[in-house]
Amino acid sequence: MTPQPSASAISSLRKAFAFMRPYKMQIALATLALVFTAAVTLALVQFVRVIVDVGFVAGSSQSLGWAIAGFMVVAVIQAMGTFARFYWVSWLGERVTADIRTAVYGHLLTLHPGYFEENLSGEIQSRITTDTTLLQTVIGSSVSVALRNLLMLLGGTVFLFITNPRLTSIVMICIPLVIGPIMIFGRKVRHLSRSSQDEIANVGAYVGESIQHIKTVQAYNHQHTDEKVFSNHVESAFKVALARIRSRSFLITIVITLVFGAVAAMIWVGGQDVINGRMSAGELTAFVVYAVIVASAVGSISQVIGDLQRAAGATERLMELLHAPSNIVSPAEPLSFPEPFRGEIVLEHLRFHYPSRPNTAAIDGLDLHVRPGTSVALVGPSGAGKSTLFDLLLRFYDPQQGKVLVDGLDIRNVDLLALRSHIAIVSQQPTMFTGNVRENIRYGRPDATDEEVMEAAKAAFASDFIEQLPQGYDSYLGESGIRLSGGQKQRLAIARAILKDAEILLLDEATSALDAESERKVQMALDSLMQNRTTIIIAHRLATVMNVDSIVVMDAGKVVAQGSHQQLLATSPLYANLAALQFAANRQNE
Ligand SMILES: Nc1ncnc2c1ncn2[C@@H]1O[C@H](COP(=O)(O)OP(=O)(O)OP(=O)(O)O)[C@@H](O)[C@H]1O
Ligand SMILES: [Mg+2]
User: Fold this and answer.
1) pLDDT tier, 10 (very low <50, low <70, confident <90, very high otherwise)
2) pLDDT tens sequence across 340-352
3) pLDDT value for 531
4) Which is the closest atom of ligand 1 to the Cα of 381?
5) 389 alpha carbon to ligand 1 midpoint, in Å?
6) Angle, nearest 10°, between helix axes 281-322 and 5-17?
7) Which residues contact 526 (CB under 8 A, 6 or more apart)?
8) Which of 400, 481, 479, 395 is nearest to 437 (CA)?
9) Which of 382, 388, 552, 555 to mutate to test the pocket of ligand 1 (most atoms within 8 A of CB)?
């Protein structure tokens, strides 16, 4: 994915910088404060020089007093400048991180569902949280540390030259010696940082899944195995981190040795000058302080370069996410459905395989025509491609061949939001979101009134059980509706679809988890809902599809027969067989 680390890191940094563009005023304030505090710090050293030369060496306590008073004034100004610097730089870090988080999440929501089959959801989550946090510390502190120290380095060097050019040459010779190892180790740190974050993301994904399915984990006594797998992940994250820490420790050691070696050399040379009277004690003090400022600036920069490079790794991944192309997008110039929307569905020579299974067609040359306002049942063995057909209708995937026409328009030429606004679906696994009953039903139409929500619940035969919940419609359902039974979830999903009131209704095994009595009731509600609405019902229990206008038998991605129950009994051996098995079983039960 990353052909040239440096090039892609730079381009992703550029993309990240785009997020700072709206905050020019804040950047200006931060920069001003940054330059100001750096300048004041350097100026303070001049007071030190005066204090030493005038106060200590000349022994004038009045001058010492003035010098110290000046020192204090400048110090207070410095403190205020530091306040502004810290405030605005942190502000930028928080603001930009918040923007990036929102942008990444917003983009993720538009990606084609297939993307999440290839990329683990836990890993993506960890990127949004861990990587952005890393970015936040970097923008909110490391960058400012780097810039401040860069200014100190430059300013300090200038003052060094002014104070004593000869001594300064010693410092200058040392600088390349210090910068060289920083560059070499820094690069290594960046690579290691990327893989360390990747490992952490893996760990996150693993935890998320096992906690979500804790009952299965414990029912199969899988705790020990999971723990082992998890600890392997953690250990390899640790190893990568260790390698990173090792490189960084080396870096710091080298820098410290070089820097203090240079300082020692300076004091030795400068000390000779003071002894010989070529330089005042105050000058040497100022010089050493400047040298220490310059040295610690180099040291700080070398430390934050590691951070900056880690951040570059994090940014690279975030920008990858942010710019992940969606395979399913609205066309640039979408066509509009003719008014009024009728809900006619035509599938023409449809051929489709899932991206992960290029050699197995899930839909294999399928033709189907559903007239507006009519109902069709899809029956057929498991794996025949029934649910896949719904995915294609909602355009979660595009077929490799053939087309899906809704009201005469190829759905690839229509705006995605417009298409989906006309379709209500109850999917095979009803999905609940963390929240209460009301919120979950209202998902179908966010602007629905409380009365409309209750009506929909009533129509889905859900109101009885909802009213028995501790807080009725306000009852909290837990994560993914964990506090509901399977059949209750199904009825809420049906209520949600009823509330959406779309012209096309797709029901995928919508009543499969209900007992016979509830199923009969929900079926009655659905029958009235289906009036004048294009409806496709997927069902395994043939008894539930007796009232549809037409039954379509699917097998291995194809339509193998179509007609009424009676017609199919005569024409389709597959259907006759299904019917014989089911109705025989029913008779036995009676
Ligand atoms: N996301 C996916 N990636 C790859 N293959 C998939 C995916 N989803 C389904 N399939 C495969 O596509 C085929 C059709 O699946 P589909 O879910 O449409 O069957 P179905 O008719 O709805 O079956 P059931 O009655 O069991 O729900 C199956 O062979 C299945 O393994
Ligand atoms: Mg299915």
Assistant:
1) low
2) 999 999 999 999 9
3) 83
4) 25
5) 10
6) 90
7) 494, 507, 510, 511, 537
8) 481
9) 388
For ligand 1, atom 26: residue with the closest CA: 382
Inform me whether the pLDDT recorded for 398 exceeds 60: yes
Q: Taking the mean position of all CA atoms in its chain, how far away is CA 391?
A: 24
**Every domain range in the chain assigned CATH 3.40.50.300:** 339-417+541-590
pLDDT at 408 over 80: yes
CATH 1.20.1560.10 in the chain, residue ranges? 18-322
Rounded Cα distance, 542 and 573, in Å: 15
Interatomic CA distance for residues 574 and 366, integer angstroms: 17
Domain 339-417+541-590 of CATH type 3.40.50.300? yes
Dihedral pair phi/psi, residue 125, rounded to 5°: -60, -45
What number is the average pLDDT over the span 91-97? Answer: 88
Q: Whose CA is nearest to atom 31 of ligand 1?
A: 383
User: For atom 11 of ligand 1, which residue has the closest CA?
Assistant: 362
- Position 441: which residue type? I
pTM more than 0.90: no
Phi-psi region of 354 (alpha: psi -120 to 50; beta: other; left: phi over 0): beta
CA of 539 to the centre of ligand 1 (A): 15
- Work out the average pLDDT over 124-147: 81
> In the CATH hierarchy, which fold is given to the domain comprising 18-322?
ABC transporter transmembrane region fold (1.20.1560)
**How confident is the model at residue 361, as a pLDDT?**
93
- Pick from 22-31, 161-170, 284-293, 538-547 the range whose average pLDDT is largest: 22-31
Output the CA 362–ligand 1 centroid distance in Å: 7
The predicted structure's pLDDT at residue 4: 39
385 lines ligand 1 (CB under 6 A): yes
Bigger pLDDT: 587 vs 57: 57
Q: What is the pLDDT of residues 186-197, one digit of tens each?
A: 667 666 766 666
The answer to whether the CB of 388 is under 6 A from ligand 1 is: yes
Among the bound ligands, the one closest to the CA of 117: 1
Residue of the CA atom closest to atom 30 of ligand 1: 383
Ligand 1 neighbourhood includes 566 CB (under 6 angstroms)? no
Query: What are the angstrom distances between the C-alpha of 240 and each of 39, 192, 235, 362, 469?
Result: 40, 6, 9, 41, 50
pLDDT, tens only, 355-374: 888 899 999 999 999 999 99
357 Cβ inside 6 Å of ligand 1: yes
Which among 418, 414, 495 has a CA at the least distance from the CA of 461? 495
Beta bridge mates, 352:
363
Higher pLDDT, residue 405 or 590:
405
